[in-house]
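Sanity check. The docking grid for nicotinamide-adenine-dinucleotide depends on where the pocket ends up, so I'm generating a full predicted complex first rather than guessing from homology. Inputs follow.
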Amino acid sequence: MEFSDQTILVTGAAGFIGFYLAKRILEENPSCQVVGYDNVNDYYDVSLKEERLRILKETADRQETGAFVFVKGDLADKECLDAVFKKYQPDIVVNLAAQAGVRYSITNPEAYISSNIIGFFHILEACRHSYERYEGGVKHLVYASSSSVYGSNKKVPYSTEDNVDQPVSLYAATKKSNELLAHSYGKLYHIPTTGLRFFTVYGPLGRPDMAYFGFTNKLVKGEKIQIFNYGDMYRDFTYIDDIIEGVVNVMKKIPEENENGVRYKIYNIGNSSPENLLDFVEILEDCLLKEGIITKKGERELLPMQPGDVYQTFADVGDLERDFGFKPNTSLKEGLSKYAKWYREYYGK
Ligand SMILES: NC(=O)c1ccc[n+]([C@@H]2O[C@H](COP(=O)([O-])OP(=O)(O)OC[C@H]3O[C@@H](n4cnc5c(N)ncnc54)[C@H](O)[C@@H]3O)[C@@H](O)[C@H]2O)c1
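Predicted complex below; grid placement will be based on this.
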């Protein structure tokens, strides 16, 4: 399925991944309309979300790009979401809006139930009714799941064939629930769905609640950085451009019917190359030193594991490679140096 003349609803368009996805679609598809939907909440610095929306509007104002409409709304607001479906009649829906973060789900569980469970249910309902409401309805629903569904999986790399029935955080439980809900709606109402388990995404204009960004802010202030499980942790860090390449590929391919007659698919999108947390901090510091963001390396405070955290993440991306001939390949050094350049330009102003 090509994007020409399609209307694509991207929820979470003011967010990190949603922004890059909307931008890429606009730049490459002049006949496309992107409808961005986001409640622009203050889970982290809202000015970053406003900056992303500003860039999206600026991109759409250039010649030879697609059209961009932004609706400020909450997924939990069924009326608002339904009105968007009625008005814009999306062909493809990419649901990236969610309450993200593992640790925040310990202190603010309600946000996860509202955005990730009720919100996702509203997306499914809107897709379900799209077939009665307009010609063709939603041809493909793509949604964000997470590597956190693997919990404390012992077997590596993590495969989509592995059993993921033992989440260790509420966040992970909501993401796994999304996959289950998608399957049931696929069976009952024939909505083709693809769930994407993203592995620790990072890059310019990223999320300040994530380790690489939080460490940077602390290092800039000369504060100690806290490293959990005494640094004995591994993460499959995935650069944003690789994630977007994966999402765009997946969006164009409506899944085949599975053995239950459901058009349902799950992919991992990860770098498939886990890095030790202490090595990661070293690479980050080298990039920040190179850009003159810091003048010396920081002090580390080594602490025990936090509730909800997992020891490692490691993506098996065999399915992605087989179906799309693509696998993420940006090295941490390359990706973090792009991030550091952006950080200097953005905060140096
Ligand atoms: N970044 C990662 O490392 C990562 C890893 C795994 C999964 N994910 C998932 O990918 C998706 C995008 O993540 P991100 O990193 O861009 O996060 P993000 O927080 O930057 O983006 C999410 C956006 O959704 C919006 N939003 C949240 N709740 C909403 C609601 N109820 N209604 C409308 N808008 C709402 C937020 O304002 C935000 O702009 C999320 O579903 C996240 O759980 C991200």
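Relevant for the grid: Residues 109-133 form the longest helix (25 residues).
Also worth noting: The pocket of nicotinamide-adenine-dinucleotide is lined by residues 12, 14-18, 38-41, 49, 74-76, 96-100, 115, 119, 144, 146, 198, 200-201, 207 (CB under 6 Å).
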